[in-house]
């Protein structure tokens, strides 16, 4: 699942990004309100974590614009402003939750997962293809009831393949979506991760689900 963090303090943004990525989320960041608003309206996010005091435009105006435009993506305000009237204002403007700094990351993660469960349904949180299943919120993957021990990057790669099950996915697209990089043809990063993922998802089982499309890329699908 994909989260946008709008936070102007570099250390705080890096801390949030690292922690949420390690928890299995794909993260984009913006360090001012103008860029945050643009990303929120042009990207596809499951949740937005929004600071209040931001350069160029504050979080209040960003949220107001998003809600007036009809956006229903859950928004979690994360701010040092802890006065009751600030929290009330945030909720009245359309925020789904309000967490005051400093905070424990475990609490932030719990609130993120709660918002994703109860928020407007945009995407399923449990994906299944044949006997392969992943729970995006619990960061858990199983095949035929057997828990798969995946690294965070392997989990993200598998989640992307399963979201697009049946689609022919180019190496460039996978690299951009999972690694957030421009793919270089001489890079073997993708091949190495696919090999490792297949060793866990496919090798122990008779039916293979991840297939190579020569000259194109990869596809995850159940075949006869």
From TrEMBL:
<dbReference type="GO" id="GO:0000976">
    <property type="term" value="F:transcription cis-regulatory region binding"/>
</dbReference>
<dbReference type="InterPro" id="IPR001789">
    <property type="entry name" value="Sig_transdc_resp-reg_receiver"/>
</dbReference>
<dbReference type="InterPro" id="IPR039420">
    <property type="entry name" value="WalR-like"/>
</dbReference>
<dbReference type="GO" id="GO:0032993">
    <property type="term" value="C:protein-DNA complex"/>
</dbReference>
<keyword id="KW-0238">DNA-binding</keyword>
<keyword id="KW-0805">Transcription regulation</keyword>
<dbReference type="InterPro" id="IPR036388">
    <property type="entry name" value="WH-like_DNA-bd_sf"/>
</dbReference>
<keyword id="KW-0804">Transcription</keyword>
<dbReference type="InterPro" id="IPR001867">
    <property type="entry name" value="OmpR/PhoB-type_DNA-bd"/>
</dbReference>
<dbReference type="GO" id="GO:0000156">
    <property type="term" value="F:phosphorelay response regulator activity"/>
</dbReference>
<feature type="modified residue" description="4-aspartylphosphate">
    <location>
        <position position="51"/>
    </location>
</feature>
<feature type="DNA-binding region" description="OmpR/PhoB-type">
    <location>
        <begin position="124"/>
        <end position="222"/>
    </location>
</feature>
<dbReference type="GO" id="GO:0005829">
    <property type="term" value="C:cytosol"/>
</dbReference>
<dbReference type="Pfam" id="PF00072">
    <property type="entry name" value="Response_reg"/>
</dbReference>
<keyword id="KW-0902">Two-component regulatory system</keyword>
<feature type="domain" description="OmpR/PhoB-type">
    <location>
        <begin position="124"/>
        <end position="222"/>
    </location>
</feature>
<keyword id="KW-0597">Phosphoprotein</keyword>
<feature type="domain" description="Response regulatory">
    <location>
        <begin position="2"/>
        <end position="116"/>
    </location>
</feature>
<dbReference type="InterPro" id="IPR006291">
    <property type="entry name" value="CusR-like"/>
</dbReference>
<protein>
    <submittedName>
        <fullName>DNA-binding response regulator</fullName>
    </submittedName>
</protein>
<dbReference type="InterPro" id="IPR011006">
    <property type="entry name" value="CheY-like_superfamily"/>
</dbReference>
<dbReference type="Pfam" id="PF00486">
    <property type="entry name" value="Trans_reg_C"/>
</dbReference>
<dbReference type="GO" id="GO:0006355">
    <property type="term" value="P:regulation of DNA-templated transcription"/>
</dbReference>
């Amino acid at each position: 699942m994909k989260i946008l963090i709008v936070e102007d303090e570099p250390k705080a943004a890096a801390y949030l990004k690292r922690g949420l990525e390690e928890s299995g989320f794909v993260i984009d960041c913006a360090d001012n309100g103008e860029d945050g608003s643009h990303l929120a309206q042009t990207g596809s996010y499951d949740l937005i974590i929004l600071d209040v005091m931001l350069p160029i435009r504050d979080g209040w105006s960003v949220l107001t614009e998003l809600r007036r435009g009809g956006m229903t993506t859950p928004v979690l305000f994360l701010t040092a402003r802890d006065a009751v009237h600030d929290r009330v204002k945030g909720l009245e403007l359309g925020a789904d939750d309000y967490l005051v700094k400093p905070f424990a990351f475990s609490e932030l993660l719990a609130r993120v997962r709660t918002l994703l469960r109860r928020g407007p349904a945009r995407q399923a949180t449990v994906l299944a293809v044949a006997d392969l299943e992943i729970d995006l919120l619990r960061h858990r993957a199983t095949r035929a009831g057997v828990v798969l021990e995946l690294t965070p990057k392997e989990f993200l790669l598998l989640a992307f393949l399963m979201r697009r099950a049946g689609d022919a996915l180019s190496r460039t697209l996978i690299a951009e979506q999972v690694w957030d990089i421009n793919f270089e043809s001489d890079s073997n990063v993708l091949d190495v991760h696919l090999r490792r993922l297949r060793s866990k998802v496919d090798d122990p089982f008779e039916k293979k689900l991840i297939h190579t499309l020569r000259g194109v890329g990869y596809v995850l699908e159940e075949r006869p």
